[in-house]
Design brief:
Elements lengths: L9 E6 L2 E2 L5 E5 L2 E5 L7 E9 L3 E11 L25 H20 L21 E7 L6 H6 L2 H8 L3 E6 L2 E7 L8 H16 L14 E8 L5 E7 L7 H14 L5 E6 L13 E5 L3 E5 L2 E5 L9 H15 L6 E5 L5 H7 L4 E6 L2 H13 L5 E5 L2 H4 L2 H7 L4 E4 L8 H10 L3 E6 L2 H11 L3 E9 L9 E8 L1
Parallel strand pairs: 4-6, 11-12, 16-17, 16-19, 17-18, 19-20
Antiparallel strand pairs: 1-5, 2-3, 3-4, 5-6, 7-8, 7-10, 8-9, 10-11, 12-13, 14-15, 20-22, 21-22
Length: 477
């Protein structure tokens, strides 16, 4: 016979103590650390414990007794449900303090290496409309908030649930889409495009994708803009045995006619179980298959599958730090690992003798080569393949020992084989750009025997989120 679970407690008049990971805050209760979202340090709340483990618990604010003086008014109507901008209730200067502290804590606690005094974090130039790319999911049934469920009659809330939606996936629920009316992360034109596609599809009885049954025509929308003023829209469809192609083409024509600002209107038929487009055939409906991004005196070609830093203005400051740390005089051989579309490689090329970029995605490497050609850069070479397979001792013997290695790996950090090859290559300097200071700290520990950390520069690319980039300069001991 199953035991009845003991009900989890409601804790009253709890003072929130500090900011924690993933945009949550924390307080201590008995011997546990309790993590709570959507509050700020200094808030006094009633907290319902929702989950309890041996060393921590998770809770939810059910009532604010007294709100903190260190608080901002969220500007987005979707705050608290969307989950994207979890720190809108925290003043930006406070966000920067916690991000600086986060980098400091992770490098000290995980890295356990000798560290210099950190440079003050570089805050983002923009704290609204700072992104150049957003991805929206489409669903035949929208997500209902707790407030909607509790405030509406059951029949009305059930009928509302059957309304299709375009918006963001709810955290932890792959099949639930929160309808977005206005997002502040890009300029307002993208809101107009997204909402118009929704309204057209509803009025013309176009089916929205059912994430569980994997049926329905309108599946996903990606919108990209650039400092050059160009605009890319990619619409994913899901044709079925009865077709749907003509409906898709009619929708695309409507979008092209309504928004002549779009310079690259693309589409695809995605029959996979996920929305990734790296292996998909993307078709041009109108305009070009790319847009151009601008940085300093350089132009970068950005295609539908290209990775480019999503905060354009702040990416310039990030790469400027990397170039400064590289200390180039014009005589150096530079290896740029995880080069993507060659942004960093081309950005530093004019100050180096030679630059070699390595990247996993073949399409990105082709863009990197084109970006060199567009900008008249002749001292770069690019190679596609798995980093640990390409960057070998034989590769270094063939192309020459690097004086400087710049590495900008994914969130998981660098593979141990890559670290070992770097150590064997023995560059004078390593510039490590990271979107995850925790895995960066782990890799710094692996490099510590031969390299000393001499500079640390945190950079905020994503205001109102807990994410932070960090650039570290290591010099050979």
């Amino acid at each position: 016979m199953a035991r009845n679970k003991k009900p989890l407690p409601l804790l009253e008049n709890i003072t929130i103590e500090a900011v924690a990971a993933e945009g949550k805050c924390l307080f201590h209760w008995n011997d546990l650390v309790v993590f709570v979202p959507f509050c700020v340090p200094g808030d006094v709340c009633d907290i319902q414990i929702r989950r309890k483990k041996h060393s921590f618990a998770e809770g939810e604010v059910v009532r604010f007794v007294e709100k903190s003086k260190v608080r901002a008014v969220p500007f987005c109507q979707h705050f608290g449900v969307c989950g994207g901008c979890k720190w809108q209730n925290l003043p930006y200067e406070e966000q920067l303090k916690f991000k600086q502290q986060q980098v400091f804590d992770q490098l000290h606690r995980i890295g356990k290496v000798e560290l210099p005094e950190f440079r003050p974090i570089l805050g983002s130039v923009k704290i609204q409309e700072y992104r150049n790319k957003l991805d929206y999911g489409c669903a035949n049934k929208r997500y209902l908030t707790k407030e909607e469920i509790s405030s509406l009659p059951k029949e009305e809330s059930q009928s509302l649930k059957d309304v299709p939606a375009i918006g963001f996936h709810i955290t932890g629920a792959f099949d639930k889409i929160l309808p977005i009316e206005k997002c502040w992360l890009m300029d307002d034109l993208h809101n107009q495009i997204r909402n118009d596609i929704r309204d057209y599809a509803v009025s013309h009885n176009i089916s929205f994708f059912d994430l569980r049954a994997q049926v329905g025509l309108l599946r996903d929308i990606i919108i990209r803009n650039s400092a050059s003023g160009e605009l890319m829209v990619i619409i994913q469809f899901h044709y079925d045995e009865t077709g749907g192609e003509q409906e898709a083409l009619d929708l695309l024509q409507h979008v092209a006619d309504t928004f002549p600002q779009i310079t690259s209107l693309l589409y695809l038929d995605n029959q996979k179980c996920n929305d990734t487009i790296g292996d998909q055939n993307i078709i041009v409906f109108k305009g070009t298959d790319h847009i151009f991004e601008l940085m300093e005196d350089l132009k970068f070609k950005v295609g539908p599958k290209s990775f480019y830093q999503t905060n354009t203005e702040q990416a310039y400051h990030l790469y400027s730090v990397a170039r400064e740390f590289a200390g180039l005089t014009g005589d150096e051989m530079v290896y740029d690992l995880y080069t993507g579309t060659g942004t960093i490689a081309n950005f530093v090329a004019k100050k180096a003798k030679h630059v070699i970029g390595i990247e996993y995605v073949p399409e990105a490497i082709e863009d990197a080569k084109i970006n060199s050609e567009i900008n008249g850069i002749t001292n770069t070479l690019f190679y596609a393949g798995d980093m640990k397979d390409i960057l070998t001792d034989d590769f270094i013997a063939e192309h020459g020992r690097p004086d400087v290695i710049i590495t900008d790996p994914p969130r998981a950090g660098m593979h141990p084989d890559v670290i070992n090859t770097i150590l064997h290559a023995a560059p004078d300097r390593i510039v490590y750009v990271s979107c995850n200071p925790a895995t960066q700290a782990r890799d710094l520990q692996s490099l510590d025997e031969q390299y000393k950390v001499v500079e640390v520069q945190p950079v905020d690319m994503f205001p109102h989120t807990p994410h932070v980039e960090n650039v570290v300069l290591l010099k050979k001991r």
